[in-house]
Amino acid sequence: MRLEPKEIPLGNGFYVSESLPVSHQLCQNLFPNYPESDASSVTQLFTRLGLKEILTTPGGEVSRGVRVMSGIPYFINGNTLWRLNRLVDSFSNETFTVDNLGTIAGTGLVSLADSGTQLGIVVPGTNTAYMYSDSAGLVQITDSEFIPSPATMVNSVVFITGVFIFGADQAIVFESDTNDGLSYDAANFFIYGNAKNNIVGLHEYNEQLFVFSDINCAVYAPTNLNELGALFTKVKGYEFTKGLSSQFAIYDLGESFVMMGQGFNETPKIYQFTGNEFTPISTTSIEQILERYTSEEIKKAFGFNYTFRGETFAVFSMKNNTFKYCMKATKMAGKKVWVEDRSENLANKDRWRVNGLVTAYDRLLCSDSEGGLIGELAEGERTDYGNLIRYDFSLPPISSGTKEIFYRYFLLEVEAGLATGDDELDVEMNYSDDGKVFPDNGWRTRGMGLKGEYQRILRWSNLGRSRTPRTFRFRMTKPGKYVIIRAWVGVDGN
Q1: CA separation, residue 362 to residues 72, 312, 365, 378 (Å)
Q2: Coil, strand, or helix at residue 152?
Q3: What is the rounded distance in angstroms from the CA atom of residue 61 to the CA atom of residue 1?
Q4: Interatomic CA distance for residues 413 and 7, integer angstroms
Q5: Cβ–Cβ under 8 Å, residues 230 and 239
Q6: How many Cα atoms within 13 Å fall on the side-chain side of residue 260?
Q7: Residue 366 to residues 50, 108, 183, 348, 485: CA-CA distances in angstroms?
Q8: What is the average per-residue pLDDT within 387-393?
């Protein structure tokens, strides 16, 4: 029995099941686009932005944190605090330079907050913290009343209503004097719950303070919003049974915030705070991957958000994975849509190399996991600092129940003619009948047309038979822009 060609949805993103025959859907370095009006297809796949170098800081050390204060970006690369400067001449030519602002102790990620004039820097798990200002430069906090007893170390910092607020050991939360991150009163602190609570991190949201342990959190507000620097009191009824997995994996997203967290006897998930509760936004597929990491590895997870082509991404990175939650696609599809980003040729890791991202100088500025690079996510950039970006996607498995089917053809509609030179872009196709093995010798290549050849539907014919569900996979390995518009499969069934 000949069946009508079947269109295969492109918009599911990344969803790899624990049982690969059930689902082995990849979406690497691509993201689904859902048009908000009538279009030639319901969903398309677009390529992500590449990374373009702005400069490399002297010493070439890996980034530990990045922050924008009053429109100026600051990078902590290795043990140095750098300020990135931009000069624009009368011909609109740009020049970028960096200023060495001083030394930051430690080796791991740092916690950052700012008041607009002071930049607070905490080296987690130590008694070391700094304040930077244009007037005073970089100064280590040495006030004798910094870190109230019995606490001995700080872990995180935020800024709310005129004061810097710190999370410390022994469940202590304390604050600076008003508008002065270098001055402290040892009486200005409170204990979160009891001394058995280990404060993982703090977060400011709507001028309220969220204090997180690893299994729960509570919300605190200033006792008098008109009196900056007032002590904080717990908001009745705003205690939650979700804790924070990593202090670096929590950040604002639109009208809410997102985080990696868990409750008592739970494994990590990714949550969005909706005003009254923490709602899971991670899929089972991603949660299974998070479970494979140790607690120490999860503590080093981090994240940030950015917007591109109308889509807002919530990014979460671990040692060997970078996942992006697609807010618009999720809303349009009515289901959770995630994708995965990766960079090539990394040392001892297998993820996207961006360690942090901020918006400044009309750019998406990026810090780096491999060295002292400061770069930007740039439109038209088709590599990561000259390294190839590999685009890879696979589609939902095709099944006809228990019947054997013959695959007559597979069609892939693409935006053709996007080659920038004489080298034609192409797409490679492979398939698996068990969802596990895509044979190395099974890749079949089709050209996407040279520049100006705009009419192109790629076709693969005589694809054999299968009684089990088949998964089709595609990859693009040449630098270029790729737009995947629609996919069909034509089959005969018995």
Answers
A1: 11, 17, 9, 11
A2: coil
A3: 63
A4: 11
A5: no
A6: 30
A7: 11, 17, 32, 20, 30
A8: 96
Do the beta carbons of residue 157 and residue 111 sit within 8 Å? Answer: yes
| Model confidence pLDDT, tens digit, residues 351-376 | 999 999 999 999 999 999 999 999 99
The two structure tokens encoding residue 189: 């602190």
- Determine the Cα–Cα distance for residues 3 and 407; give it in Å rounded to an integer: 10
User: What average pLDDT does the structure give for the chain?
Assistant: 93
Residues paired with residue 4 on neighbouring β-strands, in sequence order: none
Query: pTM score, two decimals?
Result: 0.94
Could you tell me the two tokens for 235?
Answer: 């908001």
429-445: pLDDT as tens digits? 999 999 999 999 999 99
Cβ neighbours of residue 295 under 8 Å, at least 6 residues apart?
Answer: none
List of domains in the chain? 6-48+392-493 (2.60.120)
Burial of 309 (0-12, 13-18, 19+ CB in 10 A): exposed
Which pLDDT band, with edges at 50, 70 and 90, does 167 fall under?
A: very high
Give me 425's structure tokens: 């872009």
Which residue reads 């290549």 in tokens?
A: 445
Chain Cα centroid distance, residue 239: 27
Peptide bond into 73 cis (omega under 30): no
Indicate the Cα dihedral angle 228, 234, 236, 238, nearest 10°. Answer: 100
Rounded Cα distance, 275 and 477, in Å = 43
Distance between alpha carbon 305 and the CA centroid of its chain, in Å?
Answer: 6
Beta bridge partners of residue 30, listed in sequence order: 47
Residue 195 pLDDT level (bands cut at 50, 70, 90): low
**C-alpha closest to that of 232 among 182, 176, 155:** 176
Report the alpha-carbon distance of residue 27 to residue 329 in Å, rounded.
Answer: 13
For residues 472 and 484, is the Cβ–Cβ distance under 8 A? no
Instruction: Enumerate the H helices of 269-400 as residue ranges.
Output: 284-291, 295-298, 327-333
Whether the per-residue pLDDT at 228 is higher than 80: the answer is no
Query: For the chain, how many residues are written?
Result: 494
Q: Which neighbouring-strand residues pair with 143? A: none
Residue bearing tokens 């300020």 = 83
Q: Are the beta carbons of 209 and 220 closer than 8 angstroms?
A: yes
Structure tokens at 331: 């809303």
